[in-house]
Amino acid sequence: MNTILIGIAGGTGSGKTTLTRHLKEHFGDHVTVIGHDSYYKRQEGRTYEERAKVNYDHPSAFDTDLLIQHLKELKAGHAIQCPVYSYVEHNRTDETVTVRPNKVIIVEGILIFQNPTLRDMFDIKIFVETDADVRILRRALRDVEERGRTLQSVVDQYLTTVKPMHEQYVEPSRKYADIVVLEGGHNLVALEMIMQRIQNHIDEA
User: Fold this and answer.
1) Is the entire prediction scored with pTM above 0.85?
2) Class of domain 4-204
């Protein structure tokens, strides 16, 4: 199968997921989505309090080597067992999800362009850029409503790890992008261009 790998990166709350969702809804079964967050390392032997303090915005928090291995397997036509991560427990679960090869595979995550090996695997690299004030507000709403966090914990995490890691790792990786999309899935012009590129590949494949 002729698989195209698309990377969608950008800061927390930038609109990566919205853009990815639009593409998935439009192309349906032709597109498979994998989140880098699924590849957070398992926190063996740590209490909940200790797990909550881990810097999840640093490259070392991810098992990126496993993601690279899995993408190679999918490109070769083999199914993988994708890990399942629990944001509520701050840990990888014992569950996995079977992911089968597909014409289009989208990988989404804040740091997917930071690792050179992973970055070079993508046929198309998209960086979603949104104002920092908007991103922190989106993150606060999401983490409180969907992940059971307190507003204070979201603010503390943002100031101690999210913001400095964004400036150190996420923002510098923007330069590797083929396309920079302002406002993510709300940028309909960019969305249409990306959809056309994907449609061309599906038609050829």
Assistant:
1) yes
2) alpha beta
